[in-house]
Amino acid sequence: MGKNYLIGIGGTGARVAEAVVHCCAAGMGPDELTLFLIDPDEGNGNLSRTKSLVTHYQSCRQAYTQRSGDHVPLFRTRLRTPETLVWSIFDEKNSTLGGFVNLHNLRENAEDRPLADFISVLFTREELDTELNEGFRGHPSIGAVVMATPDPHAEPWKTFWDDVASCQAPHEARVFLVGSIFGGTGAAGVPTFGARDMIKQNPAALVDDGTSKVLLGGALVLPYFTFESPESPPTGADGAPEMYVTPADFPIATQAALQFYNEKDLGFDQMYLLGDSLAQRVGRFSHGNQGQENRPHYIELVSALAAFDFFGQPEVPPGSEPAYFYACRDGRPVDWNALPGTRDASRLAQQQSEAKLALCSMTAFAYAMATEGAAVLDAAHDQVKDAWYRRNFTFNPRRPEDAGLDPRQHAQRAAIDTVARFGEQFLQWISALDEETGDVRLVDRRRLFVDASALDEQEEARLLPPREHLAAIGEFVKGSRRGPDFAAFLDTMRDVRIDSAAMSPANRWINLFYEAAREFCATGYNIPSAARPR
Fold first, then answer.
1. Structural domain range at position 45
2. Looking at the domain assignment, is residue 273 inside a domain?
């Protein structure tokens, strides 16, 4: 079996990795995927959110160990990560480009002084002296220098190259790079690692006949969002203006990057070009650290689908011509039929249907687990009269020998809560793709969450109680007619059969809610599926 690698570079790379993890939870990813990130700004809010999500996903895989059948794709992907998830590039804090190239020592040595002078011609004093632990501030030329020589014996590169070394056949390792081309870290990293001798034709990646073990793909993410620019230029502690990038810089940066890609002979076998002209706002200006936390965007979902298309394609013979992929939509609206999920036109409708069912099922599952599921677990066993519960959880709480059958038992509840909390993160993510203009028509946040205007300023988002808003679960898919309500969902739960007597209460609970959610969405929203026969 081939090895799949996704390397997210910079802030956009981290947000695409976030979308990839959520889609893997919904059952859309490959059987196995290794993921790591590259960003000098380890305090970046986008990066921190993705790191936490990856850890949570792996905890869910440990908690959810027994499936009711192969038709249940929930958390199917085995998500591997190196011991070090993020290559932060610099070993020390407060690193600068000048320090990285030892500019001071070069100037002190007469023989090296011409090289120091040359560096001073290539880079401004500001570029040489700015601390880079919060990223490259829209200056990819800096990033290209400091990322050009990763230590192959340090993580995460050691795990990566050990995996590549274990491959025996051409293209056995499928490596997908993703990052923006209009910022700093991604714009520097994608072409740097896409250079032929970095990964594709690295001596460690070659088989005996000189062909590469690596099939190299990438997503070039063009401008797709905007943010509020600062009212005045940010300054450092000394009062001097800091390097930073604003949306006004995106067009010229993109033009220069595309010209570079057109002229350079890089090592990519396949490239996906992605972007969006809606220029949706994703947050406020921040040049890095915790303040740089942007809300999710549908282009990140599209980028995840591009990665899955790359990993799932048939074998690619060595020597094949490079391929480039892009897709367009008719008009402004982005609906379920606008998601470009495959290069195979004959499979597009089927793939769109599968993606819609997977994401909608995960949404209904997460919503039901976080609301109805939590309420039932908080009640005593004897107080719960619902038919679905009485049918699937038959035990006497007063008998010590039945304690292991109760989903409220400590270890069982902990496993359920782990998955439920991930589901709440998924709901926040997929609901954030919705936006005020109404151009993105996937999931309707208003059918899942209490209106933000009804909450206190410091109050966290809350889900709508399903028994008070019965229609919500049948209305959250945009572009669909009103479907069955929550009472029908509970009827679906009642009819689901989980046949394995050896299954733990936690896994029975998770399977029960997921199977009901998948069938409810397939029938209620009329999404074609190969649903489990009753």
1. 3-95+131-311
2. yes
